[in-house]
Hints:
The chain has 18 helices and 14 strands. By secondary structure, the chain is of the alpha/beta class.
Amino acid sequence: MAQQQVHPTLGVRLHNICCIGAGYVGGPTCATIALRCPHVKVTIVDLNEARIAAWNSDDLPIYEPGLDEVVKQCRGKNLFFSTDVTGAIQEADIIFASVNTPTKVLGVGAGRAADLRFIESVGRTIAECANRAKIIIEKSTVPVKTAEALQRVVTANAKNTGGHRFWILSNPEFLAEGTAMKDLANPDRVLIGGPTTKEGVEAAGVLANIYANWVPRDRILTTNLWSSELSKLVANAMLAQRVSSMNAISQLCEKTGADVQEVSRAIGADSRIGPKFLGASVGFGGSCFQKDILNLVYICESEGLHEVAKYWQMVVDMNEHQKRTFTSNIISTLFNTVTRKKIAVLGFAFKKDTGDVRETPAINVCNMLLQDGAIVNVYDPKVKKEDALTEFKYHNMTVDESRFVFHKSAAEAVDGAHALVILTEWDEFKMLPYHEFYATMMKPAFVFDGRSILNHALLEEIGFEVHAIGKGRGPDGKLRVFKKEPQEVVSAINTALA
């Protein structure tokens, strides 16, 4: 490790970082810092002993493509995982706060406002353990002016523990699960918000210099604290708004015979709009979109901006409507009941290339099917049944485990099923032997493609009745899709059968 350098004005050492919180944000972010800054010691701490043990093993607690290789390359050299929170805080001068900020479930603002008890606890812990000045960086997604509250917490507690100085910065993450390591290696931008005082600007400069080891300076943006905090919420709200907008249009497409993928392609070609986040689906999920929009709704209402709050609330409402509509279509198509019918669900994670089930649409879809009496059989390459059950419990949904079954392969889940439902866009689902699945399923055999990733024309040639998001049906009951030439269909089926 290089000799410690000390900032000439702030008096903080520049080569020792601590991250409090070993989750989806803290783990990948600080592993990347360790990789790109071999002269910096990075220690990730968490009170969850099982999670830290997993980080120190060959079976990491989260799945993210590329993460395993980075951790193995740095762990034990300049990247460490520990439950010694106090020791890590005292040793480091630069501290990332990357703890969970869930939506409140009780009290004022329940269902919309962020629950800041964990970030508040971090502030108190840092102040109590501090042995000198520290730069504290909000990495968690937080509502506007949380930095101001955090400053008050650490300052008030520091008076009783030595009166050390603290500088609070906001450094929101803009990571997409499944591509987080790529996003960290080559970010569109790094946003750093800090106090506008001379020392606040210098503290922001310390963090900017860390990122500058691999991020071009013109991509490192600096703002005041409140602009940084609000930018994170607005970014996610704008992306979610695009998804909900296309999901609304997908329902119109189904009624008129238009194809939502063709509509998305046409409007995405407009340079003013662009193609990203225009894919219609069963709905968005993940830990950020819904939480951040509801947080924005709460802030707007708190400031008396009720019409603005209603506007953003509709983004969430449309997302819920899409999940209900999709599931209702499954039930009505299966002759208005799924009681005691086996439904094969392929994919439970909220998106591909992650095992994260937080706010996954699969929760709502499976719950509605279970409530109607279905026997739900799930296959997901990265999700464990216990993680799914934990998410059900978080949403106060009771699950009859005898009718909620996880399998180790798609073939097991589909065998004898009345319908096959795609809820996650895993690439492997595009290559499955659907001709074999058709042979084992009850007839008529239904496919409900909630991600529009399958070859619908080929599935219909096999014999499936196919229902897909945003695609209308013709008088013959089949999807209105641009089919391949007959010889191409035959060739594709023969290839699959071979």
